[in-house]
Amino acid sequence: MLGPEDLQAPKMKDDSSRQKDKERKSRLSLFLTKSGSHENVSPHKKTNTASSNISPEAALQWSDSFEELLKHSDGVETFSQFLRTEFSEENIEFWLACEEYKTIDSETKLLSKAKYIYTVFIESEAPKEVNIDYNTKMAIQKNIAQHTKSCFEAAQMKVYSLMKKDSYPRFLHSDIYLRVTRRKGPGATMFRRRSRSCVFNERGEATTEPSAW
């Protein structure tokens, strides 16, 4: 007869597996709750952000690499806010949707998610159509019926490369990122090299004094 310990062992294993899935999906929840639309966002409109809760030290780590940025949910959200100001938030939303798609085990849910991604991001005139080439789009259209976990992989890599090479460098110089790292705006910390300035004494002779900086 099975004791309480025997019944708990499989449950603990399932809990461990579920915890790993939760950790991987933590940043994906942002896509489900905070994605916006082109019509409702102005590039000059201030975006709502919880940047005050993000430490400058943590935000500075995002500049190490694009991969490092995507590891942090706060980094993904801040980057998404920047993309909204450029009317290109569909790129990060598509990438996140593909990441979530690859975690689905149910065949029924996999097919449903595949159709959703295709309808929202891939087909012509889709509400958040991503910029991919014709051949990649046709390959997805052909493979979506099989709904394998790799059917969006080529498109995801193209969008990832576009964000990494094009959007990410601009993000690092954007007002949104500079405010989070406290390098712009009230309370900004500036780093300047100490210099010496030239002044003239009462006799008209030039002398040098260390400046306040």
UniProtKB/TrEMBL annotation:
<keyword id="KW-0734">Signal transduction inhibitor</keyword>
<dbReference type="InterPro" id="IPR024066">
    <property type="entry name" value="RGS_subdom1/3"/>
</dbReference>
<feature type="compositionally biased region" description="Basic and acidic residues">
    <location>
        <begin position="11"/>
        <end position="26"/>
    </location>
</feature>
<dbReference type="InterPro" id="IPR044926">
    <property type="entry name" value="RGS_subdomain_2"/>
</dbReference>
<feature type="domain" description="RGS">
    <location>
        <begin position="65"/>
        <end position="181"/>
    </location>
</feature>
<dbReference type="Pfam" id="PF00615">
    <property type="entry name" value="RGS"/>
</dbReference>
<dbReference type="InterPro" id="IPR036305">
    <property type="entry name" value="RGS_sf"/>
</dbReference>
<dbReference type="GO" id="GO:0009968">
    <property type="term" value="P:negative regulation of signal transduction"/>
</dbReference>
<protein>
    <submittedName>
        <fullName>Regulator of G-protein signaling 21-like protein</fullName>
    </submittedName>
</protein>
<feature type="region of interest" description="Disordered">
    <location>
        <begin position="1"/>
        <end position="54"/>
    </location>
</feature>
<dbReference type="InterPro" id="IPR016137">
    <property type="entry name" value="RGS"/>
</dbReference>
